[in-house]
Amino acid sequence: MFYRESGDFKTSYVEDNQTFPIKFDRYRYYFVLLVAFLLVPVLINDYWVNAVFMPFLIYAIAAIGLNILVGYCGQVSLGTGGFMAVGAYACYKLMTAFPEVSIFIHVLLAGGITAFVGVMFGLPSLRIKGFYLAVATLAAQFFLVWLFNRVPWFYNYSASGQISAPERTVFGVPVTGASTDAWASYMFCLVFVTISAILARNLTRGSVGRKWMAIRDMDIAAEIIGVDPLRAKLSAFAVSSFFIGVSGALFFAVYLGAVEVGEAFGITKSFLVLFMVIIGGLGSIFGSFAGAAFLVLLPVLLKNVLVGMLGWPTDLAAHLEFMIVGALIITFLIAEPHGLAQLWRVAKEKLRLWPFPH
Amino acid sequence: MKLKLITAAVAAVMAAGPALADLTFPSLSYRTGPYAANGIPFADGYADYFTLLNERDGGIGGVKTELLECETGYNTEKGVECYESTKGAGSLVYQPLSTGITYQLIPKATADGVPVHSMGYGRTSAKNGAVFHNIFNYPANYWDAASIAIKHLLDENGGDLKGKKIALVYHNSAYGKEPIRTLEELSKKHGYELRLLAVDHPGQEQKSQWLQIRRERPDYVIMWGWGVMNQVAIQEAVNIRFPMENFIGIWWSGSENDVLPAGEGADGYKSLTFHNVGKDFPLFGDIQKYVVDAGKAAGAGDQIGTVLYNRGLYAAMLAAEAAKTAQAIHGVKDITPAMMRDGMEALEMTEAKMAGLGLPGFGPEFSVSCENHGGNGFGAVVQWDAKAHKWGLITDFFQSDQDVLGPLVAEDSSAFAAENGITAGCN
């Protein structure tokens, strides 16, 4: 009734090509932005930021990055943890080497460095495909973690090999380090998430994204119609690694504050982000958010319900949490193999016809 | 639906907060995950001691204690969630039993004014309380452990280690790398040759490291391991017939879990400790009477008297004593985290005090001050008797080489202070 194209007249190509062509969608999007930027920072406290919002936002960036590579370009990658580590260590080295430069620029530079490393490890994708590529990126994962553990220069020769983020500010407001206000770190991550999502959305519906999707759907056919696989695949690796690097930098500098490469960026991190992409929906920006929310927020919610409200023993709750999350993943994937994004798409399709389904 | 979930979550967070009149002790435990076998006994010991205080004495100074347990699974992200969810409840002191989580809590807890007690783990240079105001690591730390191990070897060799080869098998993480610097410094002083062998997390694969040990035949092996790594290392040492009495583990590599899988072969394996072992102490009678028989034992109740249970118990005892000290200093029964910090800084453990608690000779005597948050660095060596299934102390508690460690602590803590813009000082 209210969710439909009719009555919303477009008089220019720009209007016709906008991201949200349906008026209701558009207003909902503005509303979400408004709440996220104006309302949430006023209301949140340390717990909500550190346990809920920050992991959600940071994993969302990582999931967007991986989704570009796996979902849009069809190149399977298991190196996400390693690339996040590159972002984190690049950010750490930059933060300590140039303390007077704004952390905002450091995070972007860390993304750029990760993009470069990603392209290096993306080179084999020109020769190998599918599972074999997954194994090649797995090698990247192990190599990068080993490198950051082995070479003391990366952790500034500290005794323990841990890296910890010193205090850095944006416009005079600290966003890393101990005395950070909840709203500041939240806003810092939110700005990055918003820019990443808008950038990714527009890349994927432009000519670059179409080339990626052509490669994904059938690389030989794509080559015949004039898509250069070298540039398409390497650009996907570069853009994807850029986002993953940014998320790694934020993960270390803003969220955790101190990391150890093997524990924080191990192979489990690669799988976690890959699961987010698969559960959320391959080839969908909304899916990246949905997947991140599902895998980050559900365990926290379950813990609070089982331990906080029902008062169960913590170990029992932790085991049960695994079972419930696992069961839900299977249920969702059986009900909708294309992920949460497809559920959302179907719901919108139904809404468009409602209340007259025929 | 989403709104409902959010409401439920909010309600849950609210409900998690206990009544404010209690002394709240959070327990960031791990009863699940790869290190659960070690996390469970520690958490049980920690919980049982507070239960005993509540049941027998009505709490600390007449105020009941409240234990807030939160499962971390040894995972730093969950550790952050646990810290944030419990700190609002007036938590007095954090003991995360994980070096990774400790490193993360150091800046956060300092900013929030909550003390952290990393007993025998965490960041060693936190011993310098002039820089680390809220972080405590008494009674001993990793560098003490490295020095104690070397001192024990010196004793065995008549004070001379020249030309001896010592191998360090370590967990390739922040935790395992801690002793390297100290062992290198000590090798300069005593003239032994140090070999470093890293084992990657989780440590199930150590064939190559032990092959190297078999080839190079070091005189002694020191181990910095945790969890499954310990069991595998001890088994591998048995397999290559390495003499067990020349194999010394840090205190985190010396629990029943580590030696039992290797059976008879583990007989004679040594480990360090900073508290006593076994349950031949009067306090355990009270635990049996007030906690176990009353059906209030934490977990399955089958860990009592194991090494890590005793360590949890010791940690809880030190926390309770610090709370008592804080109550005495401030003349308030309901202490805040800031008062707790003062209590920890003024803590003094004497033999008379421990005997009065029913734990005579349970740990070394030590006192804490602003300059020294790490105690006096006393430790002892225990040895495993595979036939009797028992650990036994083979030395008294003795002090580490403070001449070597002092400058190292000063150097590392001043680097931290410079990096974070902290002006060191006691006021």
From TrEMBL, chain A:
InterPro entries: ABC_transp_permease, LivM-like. It comes from the Bacteria. Keywords: Cell membrane, Membrane, Transmembrane, Transmembrane helix. It is a multi-pass membrane protein. The keyword Transmembrane helix applies. The keyword Membrane applies. GO terms for molecular function: branched-chain amino acid transmembrane transporter activity. One of its GO terms (cellular component) is plasma membrane. It is found in: Cell membrane. It holds the Pfam family BPD_transp_2. The chain crosses the membrane at residues 27-44, 50-69, 76-95, 101-123, 130-148, 183-203, 234-258, 264-282, 289-310, 316-335. This is Amino acid/amide ABC transporter membrane protein 2, HAAT family. It comes from Thalassovita taeanensis.
Automatic annotation (TrEMBL), chain B:
Gene3D superfamilies: 3.40.50.2300. Keywords: Signal. SUPFAM superfamilies: Periplasmic binding protein-like I (SSF53822). Residues 26-386 form the Leucine-binding protein domain. Residues 1-21 form the signal peptide. CDD domains: PBP1_ABC_ligand_binding-like. InterPro entries: Leu-bd, Peripla_BP_I. Pfam families: Peripla_BP_6 (PF13458). PANTHER family: BLR6548 PROTEIN (PTHR47235:SF1). Belongs to the leucine-binding protein family. This is Amino acid/amide ABC transporter substrate-binding protein, HAAT family. It comes from Thalassovita taeanensis.
